[in-house]
Amino acid sequence: MQMTDAQDLATYDVVVVGGGAAGLGGALMLGRSRRSVLVVDAGEPRNAPASGVHGFLTRDGMDPAALLETGRDEVRGYGAEVIDGRVASAEAVDGGFTVTLEDGRRVGARRLLVTTGLVDELPDVAGIRERWGRDVLHCPYCHGWEVRDLPIGVLASGPMAVHQTLLFRQLTEDLTLFLHTGPEPTDEEAEQLAALGIAVVEGEVASLEVHEDRLTGVRLQTGEVIPRGAVVVGPRFAARAGMLAGLGLQTTTHPSGLGEYVESDAIGLTAVPGVWVAGNVTNPTAQVLASANAGVMAGSAINADLIAEDTREAVAARRGLLSSTAGTGRS
User: Fold this and answer.
1) CA distances from 190 to 140, 149, 177 (A)
2) CA 20 to 30 Å from 8, out of 155, 162, 214, 313?
């Protein structure tokens, strides 16, 4: 289906906003159901800095860009279109939605699947952003194996710092918790840290020390440098949901206190009929495999919803035809 600038917009069964694992998973199911699908992707995957995708059975360690390219090829094989672009806004119209891209292109959609993910808001410490996804990490399941047995530091900046520290203790015996701007551990937490041999350092962190493109230590505001080979941070998760404002959908604080997300039911349906979400935009802690599965589930639910609508319309049309026929005296 080709897009047009005319008022009679090209309309797809589903426009998928975001072409990561969740969006492509949804597009795959919809394409296999013979739905017309357009995937709009800005090319800014959250895991772009990482060297590999982990915890994805049969794809463990695969380059993130290669995984997405493989996914695009698969959905195109079922007739879905994938274009580069960013959705600026969406509005409800009779029978569906109008989607406007930042470059001015507009398309129609009967349903929307929003899989725009999130932005990791990192602590304001020199070096964190530059090393993010390499030797500055946040998830032990995504990247912990790669830094096993290294001297690791955990930078406390939120309520989950001690929990993170305990998780990474499984991966190394040399672990330090930098309290930085985080809360003081409770008495129970302090006892747990001491029992596991985890050092606790008070005072704010000034920067990371890097030598020959390798993280070597953590510098405190006092000037003291504590050698470390990897640093763990707890980013704040901010859902990429600005394009939903025109539909009356806003983000809300996640129950974990880790950031904001778009609320939905178990299959991704939001409070706005016809709008589904999947992946990190609604589940901030979902890994790639879980996001892909959420997209698959949402795509299947959207197809079922479209089938129900198509069936209602077919029944109404049949009744209208029979009524018209009866009115003319025909049998």
Assistant:
1) 21, 23, 11
2) 313
* Bridge partner list, 153: 176, 231
Among 87, 96, 20, 60, CA closest to 241: 87
Mean pLDDT of 171-193: 96
Q: Given the structure tokens 């996001």, which residue do they identify? A: 291
Start-to-end CA distance of the chain, whole Å, equals 40
Tell me the two tokens of residue 329.
């005296």
Count of C-beta atoms within a 10 Å radius of residue 252: 11
pTM over 0.90: yes
Q: Centre a 10 Å sphere on the Cβ of residue 62 and count the other Cβ atoms it contains.
A: 16
| Domains 11-119+236-320 and 123-232 alike in fold | yes
- Give backbone dihedrals phi and psi of 129, rounded to 5 degrees, phi first: -60, -40
Taking residue 309's Cβ as centre, other Cβ atoms within 10 Å add up to: 14
| Superfamily covering domain 11-119+236-320 | FAD/NAD(P)-binding domain (3.50.50.60)
Q: What is the Cα 126 distance to its own chain's centre?
A: 26
The CATH number of the domain covering residues in 123-232: 3.50.50.60
On whether the CB atoms of residues 229 and 242 are closer than 8 A, the answer is: no
Range list of β-strands (E), 8-131: 11-17, 37-41, 81-84, 87-93, 96-101, 106-114, 118-121
SS3 label, residue 253: strand
Domain ranges of the chain: 11-119+236-320, 123-232
User: What local confidence, expressed as pLDDT, does residue 178 receive?
Assistant: 98
Strands in 175-178's sheet, in edge-to-edge order, are 136-137, 230-232, 152-155, 175-178, 199-201
Round to whole Å and give the CA distance between 169 and 7.
60
